[in-house]
């Protein structure tokens, strides 16, 4: 059995975050967005294979989210236990919301497989994004909490605290706005503008976690700021 030392927790979190980025690029960028935005092209049984692959990718993301939450909890607990618990709890709560959204994709696939009304399948398919968007508000809070923990951990450069905070605030700004019809258009514009900080914070932190383990002088276990 692999001992979950601080270094192993850093590796687990870092690699999981990078794999999640690849899976999300496939599940959302390659599959979901083109189908949901295509005009006059309703869902049909021919879309089932790629939809099922997308569902598998989303469940992979959800499982990795749980792993990241637990790894980061163990990693940051020595620096600030209560803060680390809140941070991990927020990510797990977000994962529950993601799971609820994924079940809507399952419903869309079942409707298509049973040759039922395409409109019902499309509504189930599109509702995935609404539920996921609401869950991403919690994810934004998780990133803000993780950024705060970076300030509290003596060995983590404050740069990552600022970048994760910026990413978290970006998620909050965009997805809070998407909950209200009057601000949806503005929020979609902001999403395009803020896509870089939203991605840079967590992905950059993932690379830092992996590189920090490779250094001769390892910064783990993390300790609180003096």
From TrEMBL:
Transmembrane feature ranges: 12-33, 53-76, 88-106, 131-151, 158-180, 192-211
Alphabetical list of Pfam families matching this protein: DUF4386 (PF14329)
UniProt key word Transmembrane helix: yes
InterPro entries membership: DUF4386
The keyword Electron transport is assigned to this record: no
Top-level lineage group: Bacteria
Keywords: Membrane, Transmembrane, Transmembrane helix
Protein known as: DUF4386 domain-containing protein
Naturally occurring in which organism (per UniProt): Phaeodactylibacter luteus
């Amino acid at each position: 059995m692999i001992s979950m030392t601080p270094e192993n927790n850093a590796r687990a979190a870092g690699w999981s975050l990078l794999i999640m980025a690849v899976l999300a690029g496939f599940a959302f960028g390659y599959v979901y967005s083109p189908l949901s935005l295509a005009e006059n092209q309703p869902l049909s049984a021919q879309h089932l294979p790629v939809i099922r692959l997308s569902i598998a990718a989303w469940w992979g993301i959800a499982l990795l989210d749980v792993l990241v939450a637990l790894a980061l909890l163990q990693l940051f607990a020595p620096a600030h236990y209560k803060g680390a618990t809140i941070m991990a709890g927020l990510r797990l709560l977000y994962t529950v919301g993601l799971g609820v959204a994924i079940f809507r994709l399952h419903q869309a696939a079942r409707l298509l497989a049973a040759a039922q009304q395409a409109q019902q399948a499309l509504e189930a398919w599109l509702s995935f994004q609404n539920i996921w968007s609401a869950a991403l508000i919690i994810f934004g809070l998780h990133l803000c909490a993780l950024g705060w923990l970076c300030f509290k951990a003596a060995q983590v450069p404050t740069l990552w605290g600022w970048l994760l905070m910026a990413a978290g605030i970006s998620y909050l700004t965009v997805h809070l706005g998407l909950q209200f019809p009057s601000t949806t258009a503005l929020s979609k514009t902001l999403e395009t503008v803020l896509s870089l900080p939203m991605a840079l914070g967590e992905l950059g932190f993932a690379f830092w976690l992996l590189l920090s383990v490779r250094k001769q002088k390892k910064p783990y276990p993390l300790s609180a700021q003096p």
